[in-house]
Specification:
Chain B: It holds the Pfam family FtsX. The complex is a heterodimer of chains A (291) and B (390). Chain A is α/β, with parallel strands linked by helices and 291 residues long. In chain A, 34% of the residues lie in helices and 20% in strands. With 390 residues, chain B is an alpha+beta fold. In chain B, strand 2 and strand 3 form a beta hairpin.
């Protein structure tokens, strides 16, 4: 280790990689019980409260335990206002929990400085949004490389390869307004993968797409998770649930089935029967055939 | 990626971060061309005002300096009659020479007489001078090294009498040949050469000199000479009185300095207005692009880099406006010089004017950066989770 230990610690912390030897070096013995499972990302007893105008604070997440394994596709469902976006923000290091612990790999990332969180997001987390959120002035390949635009080295080749993998090899220099919705979302997925993240967080990824396009995007997610990335999608779309390995339900801040292997009454039915049933007859009733 | 790979490479790393920032900034500016052009125009006008008014003030000051230039370079030494000194002795002249060092000291006899030629006559001061070439220049004829015979006429008196070099004039009843006519004087001095006649010292029979001129090259040298005379010649008693205009020239220069500052201030007001318009444009633009900036932050672009992009936008507006304003100033000044023959081209091409151009250019870029700083800081520091919430 260099003599500049503080900086190294911060960087290891920010890197948030379970496989990083330096991270293990940094980790204190008190965290060992939290690292026994090989999770890509985990929340332990996380509470998130927002102050509300004068009255009682709003509890968006109430003692939430959640974890996702590498290569697992988890769908988070629940009614509007149940805290799904908050969960995604806390998982994505965009928002800090009021209490509880947050782990990325086996590194505790509960409270990081702003700069550390930014770096951890860049290196370990990919985001896919409902509105795609591509920068309109950048071409497809520039959008994909955007997270690394200010870093040394040119990521254009990597970005072009990713786009080619998603079938956009002939659209590299197109600007977002020249792309269809499905193409834009593919660019967004490619952007989320530019730094080979451990976790991909998707907020209503199919929300602005028609069913066929949505299905195509979900097929891309399957390929992403096959590479060992944990995919966590917040959704209202039954189609997403069909593709998910596990569906967790968040209602009024209470999460059920957050940990893999937890005895969730819905889980098995969703995983085994859900997809086939959904493919043949997409049911408007999301939870109707569960349990 | 090892820690070493991530270590920023000092100044090179700092510069490298600006390249993508400037590239993104210029594309963002092209998104709303009209707004960008208007902001650039604001800076352009501000820079034009600062540069043009700065140069205008400077040319005025230079022109005034040119016109009154010689005023400050002469010191006239007279005997202090209050102390009973009626004239300057050879010893006085010697001690003045010792005191001043470099500048020439020209002792003068003085009288007055009627000067006439072919019916025209006028009353003039007549000076006796041995070395007129040290203090004066001839427009006609030649000034002798040692003035032994003949008269030298001031420009004014020569015109009044219609006399030139080679003519004969009558001075106090004697016919004297004119050997030279002086150039018209730029100098404001108690020894007014335009209306004077200069004769050899031998024409006078006085005991001492009425005055002595100390002729310096610059105002500063004249001031130093005056100070030296006060200290050394007047050390024990006030034998001589001094008349110098260097102090007056200082005040005139001070006034023009003030005028220049005032004009620059006027220009600066318009530059401030331009700054406010950049502030407005940048605030609008960051509010409109709030989500985009939130996305950049969310996917891992550091606050510092967002700040760079936005500062680059403001800086580009400032730089483009400043460049256009500077160019416009050059064209405007060139046009004015061509259209106004009264303006001395040499004054306009004076090197000090370039200083005002550079000053305005720097101000323009500076105004852009300063006005962009707050919106950029605000946008970069917004929490991405807030910015993404539509």
């Amino acid at each position: 280790m260099s003599r500049n230990r503080t900086t190294d610690e911060a960087e290891d912390l920010a890197a948030g990689r379970a496989t990083n030897g330096a991270a293990a070096d940094w980790e204190t013995s008190g965290d060992s019980n939290l690292a026994d499972d090989d999770y890509a990302v985990a929340l332990r007893g996380v509470v998130k409260r927002y102050p509300s105008g004068g009255g009682e604070p709003v509890v968006a997440l109430d003692d939430v335990d959640f974890a996702a394994r590498p290569g697992e596709f988890v769908a988070v469902v629940g009614p509007s206002g149940s805290g799904k976006s908050t969960l995604l923000n806390v998982l994505g290091l965009l928002d800090d929990p009021t209490s509880g612990r947050r782990l990325l790999g086996d590194t505790d990332v509960t409270s990081l400085s702003v700069a550390e969180r930014t770096r951890a997001r860049k290196e370990s987390i990919g985001f896919v949004f409902q509105d795609f959120h591509l920068l309109p002035t950048l071409t497809a390949v520039e959008n994909v490389a955007m997270p690394t635009a200010f870093d040394p080295g040119d990521a254009s080749d990597r970005a072009a390869n990713l786009l080619a993998r998603f079938g956009l090899g002939d659209r590299l220099d197109h600007e977002p307004n020249e792309l269809s919705g499905g193409q834009k979302q593919r660019v967004a997925i490619a952007r989320s993968l530019i730094n080979e993240p451990a976790v991909l967080l998707a907020d209503e990824p199919t929300g602005n797409l028609d069913t066929d396009t949505g299905e195509a995007i979900l097929a891309e997610f399957e390929r992403v998770k096959a590479e060992g990335v944990a995919v966590i999608a917040v959704t209202h779309d039954p189609l997403v649930e069909e593709y998910a390995d596990r569906v967790v339900d968040l209602t009024d801040g209470v999460l059920t089935g957050g940990l893999p292997g937890e005895s969730d009454p819905h889980a098995d039915a969703d995983r085994r029967g859900g997809r086939d049933a959904g493919r043949t007859a997409p049911g408007p009733q999301m939870g109707g055939d569960r349990g | 990626m090892s820690a070493d790979d991530r270590a920023p490479g000092g100044a090179a790393g700092w510069l490298r971060g600006w390249r993508p920032a400037v590239s993104m900034a210029s594309r963002n500016l092209r998104r709303n061309r009209v707004r960008t052009v208007l902001a650039v125009l604001g800076v352009c006008i501000g820079v034009l005002a600062v540069a043009a008014l700065g140069i205008f003030g400077n040319v005025l000051a230079l022109g005034a300096d040119d016109a009154i230039g010689d005023i400050g370079t002469q010191v006239v030494v007279s005997p202090n009659t209050d102390a009973g000194v009626e004239s300057l002795s050879d010893a006085d002249i010697a001690s003045i020479r010792r005191a001043v060092g470099e500048p020439a000291v020209i002792p003068l006899y003085s009288d007055s007489a009627t000067v006439a030629r072919q019916g025209d006559q006028t009353f003039a001061t007549v000076y006796g001078v041995e070395e007129p070439a040290l203090a004066y220049e001839a427009a006609e004829g030649r000034l002798p090294e040692r003035h032994r015979q003949g008269a030298i006429l001031g420009a004014g008196i020569a015109e009044d009498l219609g006399a030139g070099a080679g003519d004969t004039v009558e001075i106090a009843g004697s016919q004297v040949r004119v050997i030279a006519v002086l150039v018209e004087s730029q100098t404001f001095s108690p020894v007014a050469p335009d209306d004077a006649v200069y004769l050899p010292e031998s024409a006078f029979s006085a005991d001492g000199y009425a005055q002595a001129l100390v002729v310096s090259d610059t105002g500063a040298e004249a001031r130093a000479a005056a100070d030296a005379i006060r200290e050394e010649v007047n050390a024990r008693e006030d034998r001589v009185e001094l008349f110098e205009l260097a102090a007056l020239v200082d005040e005139i220069n001070e006034f023009f300095g003030l005028l220049s500052t005032f004009l620059l201030g006027l220009g600066a007001i318009s530059l401030v207005v331009a700054g406010v318009s950049i502030l407005n444009v940048m605030l609008m633009s960051t509010v409109e692009r709030r989500q985009e900036i939130g996305v950049m932050r969310a996917v891992g672009v550091a606050r510092r880099d967002v700040l760079r992009v936005l500062l680059a936008e403001a800086g580009l507006i400032g730089a483009a406006g400043a460049a256009a304003g500077t160019l416009l100033t050059v064209l405007l000044v060139a046009g004015l010089v061509l259209a106004t023959p009264a303006v001395d081209t040499a004054l306009v091409l004076d090197r000090t004017n370039a200083y005002y151009l550079l000053l305005a250019l720097g101000f323009g870029v500076g105004v852009g950066l300063v006005s962009g700083a707050y919106p950029a800081w605000k946008a970069a520091n917004e929490r991405p989770v807030e910015a993404l919430r539509s």
